[in-house]
Amino acid sequence: MQNKMPPIILPKIDFTREFAFSDQEFERIRQLIYKEAGIALNPTKKDMVYGRLVRRIRELKLNSFAAYIDFLQSIAGKREFEQFVNALTTNLTFFFREEHHFQILAAHLKTLAGKGEINIWCAASSTGEEPYSIAIAALEALGSGSRIQIQATDLDTSVLEVGRKGIYSADKISRLPAGHAARYFDKLPDGNYQAKAQLREMITFSR
Q1: What angle is formed at CA 48 by the lines to CA 162 and CA 154, rounded to 5 degrees?
Q2: How far apart are the C-alpha atoms of 158 and 156, rounded to whole Å?
Q3: What are the phi and psi torsion angles at 99 (to 5°)?
Q4: Residues 127-160: pLDDT tens digits?
Q5: Are 206 and 179 in contact (CB under 8 A)?
């Protein structure tokens, strides 16, 4: 009887990926983003991290995730950390998301009427839809004569500039409650909409 050779077990290779991305490299990235930005990446987000950081690896003309991580931790890579954080920041937002929250906010603001300037902090403000929604809710609750200042912050510097300009597509504006688009936004020649100056002046965007 002829002896059969034992089967050869090949290592698992992902041929769909341009660069190898080990669990150890993913863990190093999780540690870096938590240390530098306080973001706790879920262990299930490995594919998302690959998709977002592979663009940075290409742009920097590096040849691996290991090289990218080493670059981040080098003196020359300090400026790359901003791009690193921006790439891993999720920016899902729209006007009056979780609308019942704004109803609660409006009710609370009414209790502060006549008690001086109101300061509101909007963390993780993304591209500005949430702080503008807060500003609109405040004006609806208290009127245009009220002194209201909103500090909108986000780790992703690229989205802050979008918020400062306050320009949004017609599709995004369509999510506003009835009448709010005409009251608080100006239609631009290109079909987009920009928050009126009064609204923009209520909000300071910063990291």
Answers
A1: 30
A2: 6
A3: -55, -35
A4: 899 999 999 999 999 988 889 999 999 888 888 9
A5: no
Summarised one tens digit per residue, pLDDT across range 65-102 is 999 999 999 988 888 888 888 788 766 678 888 778 88
* Amino acid symbol at 119: N
**186 catalytically annotated:** no
Considering the candidates 14, 58, 154, 164, report the single residue annotated as catalytic: 154
Is 52 a residue of the active site?
A: yes
- What CATH number has the domain spanning 23-88? 1.10.155.10
Which residues, listed in sequence order, are joined to residue 205 by a DSSP beta bridge?
152
Q: Which two tokens stand for residue 56?
A: 């940075």
What does DSSP say about strands 118-122 and 185-187: parallel, antiparallel, or unpaired?
unpaired
Domain coordinates of the chain in residue numbers? 23-88, 99-206
How many angstroms separate the first and last alpha carbons of the chain? 74
Q: Are the beta carbons of 36 and 86 closer than 8 angstroms?
A: no
Mutual angle of helices 23-37 and 80-88, in 10-degree steps? 100
28, 52, 56, 164: the catalytic one is 52
Q: Give the DSSP H/E element, type plus range, for residue 199.
A: helix 197-201
Retrieve residue 136's tokens: 């609109």
Q: What angle do the packed helices 23-37 and 46-59 form, to 10 degrees?
A: 80
Q: Which fold has domain 99-206?
A: Rossmann fold (3.40.50)
Beta-carbon contacts of residue 111 (< 8 Å; ≥ 6 apart): none
